[in-house]
Design a protein that fits this description.
Structural class: alpha/beta
Radius of gyration: 32 Å
CATH superfamily of the largest domain: Beta Polymerase, domain 2
Helix content: 40-55%
Shape: elongated
Number of helices: 12
Number of domains: 2
Distance between the termini: 91 Å
CATH class of the largest domain: Alpha Beta
Largest sheet: 6 strands, mixed
């Protein structure tokens, strides 16, 4: 057993810690399990959840410096440390609210370092809760002290965590005094990271607001006001705008409709010069009869009883390409986009073009 040169009181606390280690290890498993389950249940996104039981040598160093502050080992609140690392700074508050509903919180000894606003504090702007596991969450007759020992829960963002790790490695824990010019550079970098942390949250909020506005415009039918992009097209597809035409086509052979993703048609629509959802709606209104005639020609002499939900949008794109004078090259480009480039696409474009000629769609 190592001799750390502690005074009798420090050695007494260290002995208590050694007896507590099995319970601390069990607490570590239990706390992580409780936190991870609740994060999953609430569909929260975090970078990591981790925990550690304080190493004996680290505790001895702490006792050598300020062992007089503690009457017993249980007065040391970070023998078990649990950390939750979030992507965004506003998610820290969500995890905090979750923790407050789960654990007993020692408010007097907890600290929100985000409110300190020190110039060099970015990496330490964590929220530190001193917690205890209540019996209604977990109880073990073999380890009754699990419900009595406090542990530290630290909640911080990914950028704060990276900064704190780098600062520990290159700063005061390196054992070498860092010259002031390097500390100044590190503090400047901290400011940049803090600004980045804030801006990521602002951007996420703005994107969410944008999506809500788009969904409102789409649901109100104001499609001409909605720019065509990945998000808006997804919202539009949720309204099943091609469903009516698909059902008409399926009725030709009493066919079953197999659902397939339609997002791959977005670049095709953009290549056709569509910039708003109103443009897509106009394509449907103006081209659905010719698209239906083309489908009738293709299916009328077959006994195909399964079609995909892409039939309507594909035939609408074909009709639009031909009306715009895209000809066979435009059709081949369509098939290259939705199917991947292949020599077979040229033959398919040739066949579709002749079908359209027979129907006088050109």
């Amino acid at each position: 057993m190592a001799d750390y040169g502690l005074d009798p009181h420090g050695n007494l606390i260290l002995d208590e810690y050694r007896q507590m280690r099995p319970a601390l290890q069990k607490m570590k498993e239990v706390a992580l399990s409780i936190i991870r389950k609740d994060i999953a249940d609430k569909n929260l996104m975090v970078t990591a959840t981790e925990a550690r039981v304080k190493e004996e040598g680290s505790l001895a160093g702490k006792l050598a410096l300020k062992g007089h502050k503690y009457a017993t080992a249980r007065d040391i609140t970070d023998l078990l440390g649990v950390r939750v690392i979030t992507f965004y700074s506003d998610d820290v508050d969500k995890i905090a609210a979750m923790a407050e509903n789960l654990f007993w919180i020692d408010r007097e000894n907890s600290v929100d370092k985000r409110k300190m606003h020190q110039l060099d504090s970015f990496g330490y702007n964590s929220l530190h809760y001193i917690c205890r596991i209540p019996e209604y969450l977990y109880k073990d007759p073999d380890f009754p002290e699990i419900n009595e020992i406090r542990f530290e829960l630290q909640i911080r963002t990914s950028l704060q965590h990276v900064w704190a790790t780098l600062y520990h490695d290159s700063g005061y824990k390196s054992g070498v005094e860092v010259p002031s010019q390097y500390l100044r550079q590190m503090n400047r970098l901290a400011g940049m990271l803090e600004l980045a942390d804030e801006q990521f949250c602002v951007i996420r909020r703005d994107i969410n607001d944008y999506r809500r506005r788009v969904q409102s415009l789409v649901s109100d039918g104001r499609l001409e006001e909605v720019a065509l992009d990945g998000d808006t097209f997804k919202s539009y597809l949720a309204m099943q705008p091609f469903d009516t035409l698909n059902r008409r086509i399926a009725a030709l052979n009493q066919a079953e409709i197999q659902e397939v993703p339609l997002q791959r048609y977005l670049p095709v629509l953009k290549d056709l010069g569509m910039t708003t959802l109103g443009d897509v709606e106009q394509m449907i209104r103006g081209g659905q009869e010719d698209a239906y005639r083309l489908a009738s020609y293709q299916l009328g002499v077959t006994d195909i009883d399964i079609i995909t939900s892409a039939v309507a949008i594909q035939n609408l794109c074909i009709v639009t390409i031909l009306r715009n004078g895209g000809g066979k090259p435009g059709l081949q480009s369509l098939f290259d986009t939705i199917n991947g480039q292949s020599e077979a696409n040229a033959s398919l474009a040739e066949m579709i073009y002749h079908q359209a000629e027979n129907l006088k769609l050109i």
